[in-house]
Amino acid sequence: MSALPRNVPSAIALHEARWLRSSYSTGANNCVETAPYSGLLAVRDSKSPTGPALLFTQGSWTEFASAL
């Protein structure tokens, strides 16, 4: 197992991040939210704002989103 990079934010830092939701999402919380943070992009389920978040580099997020 490799060590996490030093710029990986803590759970506290992500709690304080400015989370964004698509303008296409409905009021039913059936979407994901993103938050830019320290050169990374955090992605979480809008139904679980205190739950886990996935962290992507800009390049890996672009590649992932392009494949959808």
Automatic annotation (TrEMBL):
Residues 17-67 form the DUF397 domain. Pfam families: DUF397. This is DUF397 domain-containing protein. It comes from Streptomyces acidiscabies.
